């Protein structure tokens, strides 16, 4: 895709977008009682976390680029690891926000989303 190629060629822009997105995640996590956009109460957090971290995994896999085909698996690994660690720190942060809690299932869904987003980027190539 032309957009992915452009983002890979403009590393500073890509890292700026990625870090801004991470800041947005942090700011949303700081809201005590965030509105729920999806009507399904049981599955909403799980779906939201997967989508949220799929975007982050995608952005990280574009930002951590490599031209070496042998290193491609490491790009995926680092994107997933960074997104998952960020998800863990986000859950810790939420534990200090009134009305929010930290959840192992949220971390798990963050990791699943990061995996999906990272692999999706490479499916588009």
Plain-language structure description:
The protein is mostly helical. It has one domain. It is built from five helices and no strands. The termini are close together.
Architecture blueprint of SSEs:
Elements: H1 2-9, H2 11-29, H3 44-63, H4 72-94, H5 104-124
Helix pairs in contact: 2-3, 2-4, 3-4, 3-5, 4-5
Overview in brief:
This protein has helices spanning 2-9, 11-29, 44-63, 72-94, 104-124. The chain has 125 residues and is mostly helical.
Unreliable segments of 5+ consecutive residues:
none
- By DSSP, the count of extended strands is 0
Structural class: mainly alpha
Calculate the mean pLDDT score and round it: 88
- The Cα radius of gyration reads 15 Å
H/I helix tally? 5
* Helix share, percent: over 70%
Largest sheet: number of strands, sense, barrel closure? none
What key attributes describe this structure?
125 residues, mainly alpha, 5 helices, elongated
């Amino acid at each position: 895709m032309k957009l992915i190629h452009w983002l890979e060629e403009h590393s500073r822009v890509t890292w700026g977008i990625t870090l801004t997105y991470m800041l947005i995640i942090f700011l949303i996590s700081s809201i005590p009682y965030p509105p729920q956009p999806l009507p399904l109460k049981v599955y909403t957090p799980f779906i939201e976390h997967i989508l949220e971290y799929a975007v982050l995994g995608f952005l990280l896999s574009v930002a951590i680029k490599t031209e070496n085909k042998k290193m491609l698996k490491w790009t995926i690994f680092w994107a997933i690891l960074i997104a998952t660690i960020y998800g863990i720190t986000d859950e810790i942060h939420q534990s200090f926000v009134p009305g929010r809690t930290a959840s192992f299932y949220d971390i798990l869904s963050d990791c699943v989303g990061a995996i999906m987003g990272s692999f999706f980027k490479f499916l588009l190539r």
